[in-house]
Amino acid sequence: MNPIKAARKLNKLTQAQLAKALNVARTTVAMWETSPSCPDNDTLVRLSKVLHVPVDFLVGAGVFENWEEIMSNAEAVFCAIRKKIPPDYSDPIKDDKFLIANLDIAFFYEKNELFLIQWFANAVKSVVIVDQSTAEVEFTPIFDSAVKLHNSKVMGLGDAINNKLYEFSTYEYANPKKSQAISIPVLGTVPAGIPLEAVEDIVDWEDIPDSMVDGGREYFALQVKGDSMWPDYLPGDTVIVRKQPTCNSGDDCVVYVNGYEATLKQVRLNSDHSLTIVPRNQSYPPRTFSPEEIESLPVSIAGVVVELRRKIKK
Predict the structure, then answer these.
(1) What residues are paired with 126 via a beta bridge?
(2) pLDDT for residue 91
């Protein structure tokens, strides 16, 4: 099936409804779906946003070059994925469940192809169908690194932060008497300029609602340093960060560059599987890392910023 038509049907839109959303004629949509002609780049980007699928899907590029074959051999593909992802690997998008369980449901129970398209866009670089029962799956570098970090028990800010959190876990995270709030340590700083090592002594404490840690979710707090994220983040601000090794494009994240230097930046996941970290302050340039650099440096996600706290007076 034509990918534009497939994406439209997954979103339960008629040709007329899609045409109205894009401010084009219905006959234009019909032409896209029935002829080899392809919309221009700007229109493809608009289609991507309206239909909630990546541009690669609309043009049949990358992992989506053989998407119909992947869906026709769902069992073989799922088995290949399951061999590579541990059953306790948490899904950062639906962090109250496990990723393998979500994929199982999406493949075989809910038939949620839209979810699968969105997940494959970020996590899967290629799929080769060997036969009806066998497939080979290669993950994108950033997702592959996230799984390896999980498997080696080195997540988020690594062993140093994990050890510090463990010291306080018995009475901060696990104390059943705390029903309203728990305290998390503020560990060092998040440089918003030139990256610096973030793991230092505890400099403060912040309270968060105990409901935030439901399902085993973990958080840490770090302080902002520098002005590359000005004006949204100021020096001395505290960010509450949910520990997770992947993110959605556009999230503000604590990112490791060279494996140990933590920096606060917006993360953009590009269609060619490169990653761009973007400062708010236009005086600082964005930096893009190729898939090879993500793996070799490496570049990884420590966590996603979920809250900003600013003290007016000390």
Answers:
(1) 138
(2) 64
β-strand partners of 197: 261
Type and span of the H or E element at 254: strand 252-257
Residues recognised as catalytic: 228, 265
Please, which residues have CB within 8 angstroms of residue 209's CB and are 6 or more apart in sequence? 180, 181, 182
Q: Percentages helix, strand, coil for the chain, rounded to the nearest 5?
A: 40, 25, 35
Helical spans, DSSP H, in the chain: 3-10, 15-22, 26-34, 41-51, 55-59, 67-72, 74-84, 99-104, 113-123, 141-151, 159-172, 291-296
pLDDT at 68: 94
**Nearest residue to 89 (alpha-carbon basis) of 98, 77, 76, 102:** 98
Paired residues of 137 in beta bridges: 127
Where do the structural domains in the chain lie, given as residue ranges? 3-149, 153-309
Would you tell me how many other CB atoms lie within 10 Å of the CB of residue 32? 23
**Please, what's the b/e burial string for 114-138 (b: 16 or more CB within 10 A of its CB; e: otherwise)?**
ebbbbbbbbbbbebebeeeeebebe
The total of other beta-carbon atoms located within 10 Å of residue 285's CB is: 9
Can you identify the CATH homologous superfamily of domain 153-309? Umud Fragment, subunit A (2.10.109.10)
The neighbouring-strand residues paired with 243 are: 303
Least confident stretch, 50-54, 110-114, 201-205, 254-258 = 201-205
User: What's the first-to-final CA gap in the chain, in angstroms?
Assistant: 62
Residue 153 has pLDDT above 60, yes or no: no
Q: Is the pLDDT of residue 175 over 60?
A: no
Q: pLDDT tens across 57-105, in order?
A: 999 999 999 999 999 999 999 999 999 888 778 765 555 467 888 888 8
Compute the distance between CA of residue 189 and CA of residue 236 in angstroms, rounded to an integer: 9
CATH number of 3-149: 1.10.260.40
> Measured between alpha carbons, how far is 181 from 136 in angstroms, rounded to an integer?
46
